[in-house]
Write a structure and sequence with these properties.
The chain has 19 helices and 15 strands. The strands form 5 sheets. It has a 4-stranded mixed beta sheet, with no helix packed on it. A 3-stranded antiparallel beta sheet has the order 1-5-6. Helix 3 packs antiparallel against helix 4, helix 8 packs across helix 9 and helix 13 packs parallel to helix 15. The longest helix is centred in the C-terminal third of the chain and has 36 residues. It binds a DNA duplex through strand 12, helix 8, helix 11, helix 14 and helix 16. This is DNA topoisomerase I. It is an enzyme of class 5 (isomerase). Its main location: nucleus.
Length: 592
DNA sequence: AAAAGCACTTAGAAAAGCTAGA
DNA sequence: TCTAGCTTTTCTAAGTGCTTTT
């Protein structure tokens, strides 16, 4: 294969291009470079891959695993049994108690039944999946108890699969594929109050699959006896494989790993756009403050919405088809019922109380003092409206983004989130890093800066199930360490006293080593205390999303260089691969 | 100009993997 | 050597925003 160079050497070429650009970031250089590689929307010239890995076929249950209907054993047809196992596997989950889930599941399950099954099984409550469920639990238990050799065998098989299907060649690079396995069939689990929860996500067959690769590549063969839906050669897109999913009718893709050239470059570009916003954000802010006074309602709504997006890092809020998804909103789709106006609250004037479900049905709750003009405008927008009416009835994301495009090339609502997240990290790092701190304390400061961003972006997580217990464990470790420290100090004291009397070399040495011991234990104690603080503050906050998607990695790299923190303390292996471009590029004086 | 389609980024939960300390 | 408790990886849903169709 003539195209294949080693991935390493091509990486060097790629990253040195980026590095060069970062030092000479004029718009001419950048567009010239991009045009040279990819004229107008072309994403690649050569693409070759092995196609997707399909979900393993259904294995029928052993004869002794029974399903009961209305108290009586019933042997199910293979198709009906397969769908029944999906439900059985989820039996412990509270999903299966929800009425919508049960209704959707039962409806779709019945479609898979034979006509006899259909006439017998008419009530889900009479179905007893417990035996099946127990069987699966035993299976997973058995998997855990497997011998080392068996586990090793499975690991090797996975590695073989990864080696064979996990990589592709795009232009001159061998690149890792993100999700080369096709999603297996199962029951749809939406987030929050999703109207389609419990529906059957059907098995994807080769006949559903569109393959995308270059004409001059070796086209992956479909599994024996099957055909692809289509093979296309579209180099204006980055995906390798796609299919249409049956729940929402949306398209799913197989794409490259974040470490790939095509993703890294896009990521870098995203932060460059945010940095361009930095240069004109003051002007834009002045502009929207002016627009609060506009005589046009549409302009005022746009200006207030933009203020929220900027100040609170809200998402844009596209319209969604009603009844197809969970009822969640972003800025432009806020409804009157999602905010409360308080002329005065807790000693503050003009407070807006937000309470709505955002992406993934994560609750956004915040009380924010706003400028008087914003407050008056909101009162105006809410006049004569019902709770379920749109707050910004003259606005949508497309109007807003068109306006933003006029203010700055490439500016859209989401750029504000990236900009505010990254600038907040940079500011917080400056403010929180104490030069005299040791490394663990500096890392605590980093995590606190990261946390400020996560709070801004409302990145939440369910508190870990074992949180209380693990906090208690840590506390008892701290207590033990304190006792150990007290002991060490006592020993040091007596060693000193001893040395004073004896005045010989040996006892002097003892004092020194006891001193060292005290110091070491002090450090260990400090480390533990820092860990406890960090964990407590992090209880309900997820740092990963902002770290991965919103924070310009060059800020973190520069901070590490400046303070002599090993980059491994901030980014794990995967993250270092994703941010290889930034690690290579950023010097200690990098400014976002 | 509104709706539908498409391609891509962003998101938290769950599974899997790893490791320190019993 | 085992396993509890953590971190990392995997999974796939749910957004954004642009393009195409009606």
């Amino acid at each position: 294969m003539g195209y294949l160079s080693t991935s390493e050497s091509s990486c060097i070429i790629y990253y040195s291009c980026l590095a060069l650009l970062s030092r000479h970031p004029g718009p001419d250089v950048r567009s010239q470079w991009e045009e040279e590689r990819y004229p107008e929307g072309i994403k690649w010239k050569f693409l070759e891959h092995k196609g997707p890995v399909f979900a393993p076929p259904y294995e029928p249950l052993p004869e002794n695993v029974k399903f009961y209907y209305d108290g009586k054993v019933m042997k199910l047809s293979t198709k009906a049994e397969e769908v029944a196992t999906f439900f059985a596997k989820m039996l412990d989950h509270e999903y299966t108690t929800k009425e919508i889930f049960r209704k959707n599941f039962f409806k779709d399950w019945r479609k898979e039944m034979t006509s006899e099954e259909k006439s017998t099984i008419t009530n889900l409550s009479k179905c007893d999946f417990t035996h099946m469920s127990q069987y699966f639990k035993a299976q997973s238990e058995a998997r855990k108890q497997m011998s080392k050799e068996e586990k090793q065998k499975i690991k090797e098989e996975n590695e073989r699969l990864l080696k064979e299907y996990g990589y592709c060649v795009m232009d001159n690079h061998k690149e890792r594929i993100a999700n080369f396995k096709i999603e297996p069939p199962g029951l749809f689990r939406g987030r929050g109050n999703h109207p389609k929860m419990g529906m059957l996500k059907r098995r994807i067959m080769p006949e559903d699959i569109i393959i995308n690769c270059s004409k001059d590549s070796k086209i992956p063969p479909p599994p024996p006896g099957h055909k692809w839906k289509e093979v296309r050669h579209d180099n204006k897109v980055t995906w390798l494989v796609s299919w249409t999913e049956n729940i929402q009718g949306s398209i799913k893709y197989i794409m490259l790993n974040p470490s790939s050239r095509i993703k890294g470059e896009k990521d870098w570009q995203k932060y460059e756009t945010a940095r361009r916003l930095k240069k004109c954000v003051d002007k834009i802010r002045n502009q929207y403050r002016e627009d609060w006074k506009s005589k046009e309602m549409k302009v005022r709504q746009r200006a207030v919405a933009l203020y929220f997006i900027d100040k609170l890092a809200l998402r844009a809020g596209n319209e969604k088809e009603e009844g197809e998804t969970a009822d969640t909103v972003g800025c432009c789709s806020l409804r009157v019922e999602h905010i409360k106006l308080h002329p005065e609250l807790d000693g503050q004037e003009y407070v807006v109380e937000f309470d709505f479900l955002g992406k993934d049905s994560i609750r956004y709750y915040n009380k924010v003092p706003v400028e008087k003009r914003v407050f008056k405008n909101l009162q105006l927008f809410m006049e004569n409206k019902q709770p379920e009416d749109d707050l910004f009835d003259r606005l949508n994301t497309s109007i807003l983004n068109k306006h933003l495009q006029d203010l700055m090339e490439g500016l859209t609502a989401k750029v504000f989130r990236t900009y505010n997240a990254s600038i907040t990290l940079q500011q917080q790092l400056k403010e929180l890093t104490n030069p005299d701190d040791n490394i663990p304390a500096k890392i605590l400061s980093y995590n606190r800066a990261n946390r400020a961003v996560a709070i801004l972006c409302n990145h939440q997580r369910a508190p870990p199930k074992t949180f209380e217990k693990s906090m208690m464990n840590l506390q008892s470790k701290i207590d033990a360490k304190k006792e150990q420290l007290a002991d060490a100090r006592r020993e040091l004291k007596s060693a000193k006293a001893d040395a004073k009397v004896r005045r010989d070399e040996k006892s002097k040495k003892t004092v020194e080593s006891k001193k060292k011991a005290v110091q070491r234990i002090e450090e260990q104690l400090m480390k533990l205390e820092v860990q406890a603080t960090d964990r407590e503050e992090n209880k309900q906050i997820a740092l990963g999303t902002s770290k991965l998607n919103y924070l310009d990695p060059r800020i973190s790299v520069a901070w590490c260089k400046k303070w002599g923190i090993p980059i491994e303390k901030i980014y794990n292996k995967t993250q270092r691969e994703k941010f290889a471009w930034a690690i290579d590029m950023a010097e200690e004086d990098y400014e976002f």
